[in-house]
Amino acid sequence: MDRRRFLEVLGVTGGGTAALAGCSTDQVEKLIPYLVPPEHQVPGVATYYATTCRECPAGCGLHVRVREGRAVKVEGNPESPVNRGRLCARGQASLQGLYNPDRVRGPMARTADGRFEPITWDEAIARLAERLAAASGDQIWFVTGHETGTFDRLVDEWLNGLRSNRRVVHEPFAYEALRRANRDVFNVSALPTYDFAAATYVLSFGTDFLETWVSPVEHARGFSAGHGFAEGRMGRYVHIEPRMSMTAMSADEWIAPVPGSEALLALALAHIIMRDRGAAVPPDALRLRALLAAHTPQGAAARTGVAVETIERLAREFAAGPSLAVAGGIGAQHPQAHVTAAAVNVLNYVAGNVGRTVRFGPEPTVAFGGGYGDLADLTRAMREGRVGVLLVHGANPAYASPAGLGFTDAMGRVGFTVSFARFLDETAMAAHLILPDHDPLEQWNDAEPRANVTALQQPVMQPVFDTRQTGDILLAMARRMGGRVGARFTAGSYKEYLQQSWQALQRRLRNSQPFDVFWAEALQRGGIVTESPPRPVRLGIGAAGAIGEATIWAAPDEPFTLIAYPSPVLHDGRGANRPWLQELPDPVTKVTWSTWVEIHPATARRLGIAEGDFVEVTSAAGTVTAPAYLYPGLREDVVAMPTGQGHTAFGRYAQGRGANVYHLLSAEPMAFGGVAHYAAVTIRNTGRHERLAKTEGRNRQMGRGIARATTLGALVGSETPEAAHEEHAAHAAPVPERIEHILDEWQEAQYAEARRGNYAGEHPRWAMAIDLSRCTGCSACVTACYAENNIPTVGPALVRHGREMSWLRIERYFEGGEHGEPLETRVIPMLCQHCGNAPCEPVCPVFAAYHTPDGLNAQVYNRCVGTRYCSNNCPYKVRYFNWFDYQAPQDPTFAWPEPLHWLLNPDVTVRAKGVMEKCTFCVQRIRGVQHEARLADRPLRDGDVVTACQQTCPSDAIVFGDLNDPTSRVHDLAADRRGYRVLEELNTRPAITYLQKVRNTREA
Amino acid sequence: MTKRVLLAAGVLGVGAALVALRYGAPSAGLRAQQDTTAARSAYVAPVDVDTARLPGPKQPVFYRHDIHAGQYEMDCRYCHFAAEVSRSPGMPTLSTCMGCHLVAGAGNPEVEKVRAAYNEGRPIEWIEIHRLPPFVQFPHNLHVAADLTCQDCHGPIERMPQVYQYASLKMGWCLDCHHEEDVTTECTVCHY
Fold it and tell me: Inter-chain contact A30–B127, Cβ cutoff 8 Å?
């Protein structure tokens, strides 16, 4: 009997996930109980398991909420030092990897006519064993993704047993340039940890540290702590890149130098610091004197296009306080990116930041291995027929490598290719045998995301499909083959192998507990954290020589430089088959379900390109076509495209969507061993046009004062307050006395109502505060909201009609950027404001929209008849109408094809066609906590209720609580002097207080 | 906290013997147990019931609440163990049934169905009777904590050979009680 069947329907729970079918009882529903109750599961009560996120190499800790044996929500693990309970959008969407309808459901083999046909596991393993036995050691190659823990060692040992050392690690964002620079300058090939919280001055050289770079959630937390306004203080952040990335949107100043010239700026800054001795320059840095002497600010200014005064000022500011410069982002990975990173290393060293804000771990082994160069070697070997058996795990090189490499073609010359892929991605499609791995949420595994952190992964539920963990397959294979490789492994299963490795770890830590206790504790906490001091690094002897006469990359004689930047949503393309991520608007452009080419409006005007015109972008490597998006956050000689789309396989949500920017990149490994993400291109308007599926309306505020900002100077009193919104306030009509009176009376009556029954005592008034000086626009909250509240994804056609259902959206506005003013970007999370005097409520003819005594603007789905008057009357446009039946399998708008519907939150109704919906302030969480408090006979405390958006926010920008509790955080923040309410002149009395963004503009 | 869960007072008398006659001799252990409770048992579930005339849908197994909850006075929460701690009362797992029926009720054709299902690893698909629309959230635990009995909503379950829907479960019926007891009638307490 398939055990999973028992989990499918359990008892009378799970009703919330069923269709909103009305009160009729004519349908017969079955109650199917378990045969044997699973351990620790009470129907209707959630269980949480600690595990580790494997969506990117950062290795954030997870708490997975499991109801009736199914994972329904992932949240960050507060005990993980990496993410401290927070998570990004990709992490939130890991559930859609687990329940993806396009997962490979069992082992498959390719038939003679090229199709895949299901086979049994025994047969699959037998076939692989036969091929392995026939191949000689050096013909066996193994490609894996980035692995840092026990699995990494297992693969090496296993290959070693087969007398092979042909291990290739393919991680598209492997930071080869940064690692090379660390080796050149510090003799350390590892990645350090960056302390953004301790830095009062951050300088990013094209590094998207809030998006994909190294550990974005950790950086966002540190950055918001260091840069968020608090008690009259905040850090300053300057971003240097030809394109304004999502990370750069948070910068106080954006400097767009000539593409590829950042190294010169970094060296010029180091030159000035050395010259002025502004910081305590370490004595051995004097060895760099000759190198730096050659890089004068004047010389840099001439070649970077940045004014000498700006360079001098940046150097002064950088040297003044604890500062941090970062480089090595994929979006800045031009052919000389290692020189940029080396120059920034020198800058940090000269300013005394190494060891303070840049800390190298005690163990240099914790590092990224491999790089693109190894993949190029493998491709050559394949083409030359030197590869007998190719095993691919956790990587998709056929997609995420430049087309010129010819990986897919070369695969045709491999004797036998085995893929452990969970999806039929581009690489798996070219394989002979597919042995699907478990999803990371179904696996035993571990990872060492960085020094001192060893994170454990445990299965949070039974496998959804007939998959097997690759570790188990390798061990089974070793046992079967016996001899040299069989003798190496004593473990019967991968879990046992993992435990052996943890026993060794326990011995290394000199931990004297019984192993069971040690193991159980680690499982509960999600891993272990050890303490060890950072390793001091010194300037390498060859540091100056490595930089030498810094060669800046100059685009060949083409009019435009293309930046193929890493998508903060789809990453290197691995997120493309997750509908949540496809529908999540790109934080910068607000485009969904597509690829686009970012072009500066002035350039577009010159070339006669309008938004949505298909533009042909041609580089030496190839041509791709994608619609144009006019973006003012670019130099005029630069165009930009995100990674992640253009899949030819991978599943229904990814396939045939957008264009693959890798087709424009050179296949030649750069000097640092990676792919250059810059290319010289020409662009041409094809004349074809398509409306972009974007959620952006106007990109300017038109004086509405929605996302407001002030300057640090104004707040600390050295400058007069910004007058930007005074004209705006004039629109507000005064509220007549009598209306005030009526509103007060009405509110009193509501409170009288609240005193009855369950919620007697101090009546809460639920409210939220959103700090715009912390919000980075990363959109993790948006995906968390989709996950928590069963929000359907609607697809690009409906997004074009403005019918996306995102209860919470991030609006992005531009300020300035014209007539020589600096461009500024503002982001603001927009959700139901739960107005005290809500315009939606009085217009509802059936009282479906009404006000609860505890201050929620409620929407009663079973009352709603779909007049949509409420939405028409809402000035914030935060109400969403179910135009279609998103839960009907026969409809093209079906949002949850089996088994995707397993992730539905059983505590939240799935709304039917014809019903209006909107943010509820996570009322299910409020009621859940109130019920718990009532059963425990205790009052609610501030912080008991945490909304899904607040829970996941990596920069802690959202605070939720009871406004009537004078001790609550939200009560304080509502009265903050930065506080304002959006469109408050309409007298809507929102429950959401926004705290103005603060820009740390240069002190005069 | 006082609980009036399962008001039914049952006295076991001749019933035990009749059941034994009808379904074959119960095992020694169970007989002993019945004998000790015999003195204070009041209710005896009828041996023969006209199944054609019973209200409610016919279930795959003719499970009799009137015998288990009525005659044997088993606490509802013995099987529906989650009612007190969860919003969901929980359907008893087959292993809960087998806790007694490994031994008890041998030869009874309905018990044999349960045993067969358990041995084959096949769950029994009960027909749902008390079904709330999916936009209603009903926490069992809070209602149990508020000293409501199971019977208040589910009716005289301990007298039902076959379970039927006792209350309408319509919103007006909920609200009658909420008004009477001065409990909140706030929409978002149940609808979200």
Answer: yes
* DSSP result, B102-156: TTTTTT-HHHHHHHHHHHHT----EEP-S---TT----HHHHHHTT--HHHHH-S
* Cβ within 8 Å of residue A879, ≥6 positions away: A832, A840, A859, A870, A871, A916, A917, A918
Strands A958-962, A766-771: pairing is antiparallel
A817: nearest Cα among A634, A976, A681: A634
A272: CB partners within 8 A, 6+ apart: A278, A297, A311, A312, A315, A316, A319
> In 3-state terms, what secondary structure has residue A626?
strand
Residue in B95, B137, B186 closest to A37 by CB: B95
Between β-strands A613-618 and A709-711, what pairing exists: parallel, antiparallel or unpaired? unpaired
List phi, psi (to 5°) of A417. -115, 130
Is the confidence metric ipTM above 0.90 for this complex?
no
Q: B72 in contact with A at a CB cutoff of 8 Å?
A: no
CA A377 to chain centre: 31
Name the band, by pLDDT with cuts 50, 70 and 90, for residue A475: very high
Q: Average pLDDT of A653-662?
A: 95
* A32 within 8 A of A40, measured Cβ to Cβ: no
Contacts of A26 (CB under 8 A, 6+ apart): none
Q: Is the pLDDT of residue B1 over 90?
A: no
| Kind and range of the H or E run holding A410 | helix A407-411
**What confidence tens digit (pLDDT) does each residue in A430-463 have?**
999 999 999 999 999 999 888 889 999 999 999 9
- pLDDT band of A987, cuts 50, 70, 90: confident
B90 interfaces chain A, CB cutoff of 8 Å: yes
Residues 134-173, chain B, touching A (beta carbon < 8 A): 134-135, 137, 139-142, 145, 165, 170
Q: A389-393 and A61-67: which strand pairing?
A: unpaired
Q: Cα distance from A18 to chain B (closest Cα, Å)?
A: 6
State chain A's mean pLDDT as an integer.
89
pLDDT, one tens digit per residue, over A928-942 is: 999 999 899 898 899
Residue B121 contacts A, CB cutoff 8 Å: yes
**Are the beta carbons of A278 and A320 closer than 8 angstroms?**
yes
Q: Is A922 on the interface with B (CB under 8 A)?
A: no
Interface of A with B in 753-792 (CB under 8 A): 753, 756-759
Q: Output the DSSP codes for A252-295.
A: SEEE--STT-HHHHHHHHHHHHHHHT-S---GGGGGGHHHHHT-
Cβ–Cβ gap B88/A935 under 8 Å: no
Give the number of beta-carbon pairs within 8 Å between A and B.
160
Chain B residue numbers touching A858 (CB-CB < 8 A): 187-188
Strand partners, A110: A116
Give per-residue pLDDT as tens, A187-232.
Answer: 888 888 899 999 999 999 999 999 999 999 999 999 999 999 998 8
- Interface contact flag, A15 B132, Cβ < 8 Å: yes
All residues at 6 or more sequence positions from B162 whose CB lies less than 8 Å from its CB, including other chains: B49, B51, B54, B55, B56, B57, B58, B59, B62, B64
Residue found by looking up tokens 């992640």 in the block: A644
Partner-chain contact A909 B57, CB within 8 Å = no
With CB atoms and an 8 Å threshold, state whether A37 touches B187.
Answer: no
Model confidence over A481-495: pLDDT tens digits?
888 888 889 999 999
| pLDDT of B28 above 90 | no
Determine if the pTM surpasses 0.95: no
How far is residue A471's CA from residue A488's CA, in Å, rounded to a whole number?
14
Mutant choice from A1, A5, A31 vs B, greatest count of B C-beta within 10 A: A31
Q: Which residue of chain B comes nearest to A860, CA vs CA?
A: B191
> Which residues 925-984 in chain A show a CB within 8 A of chain B?
927, 931, 934-935
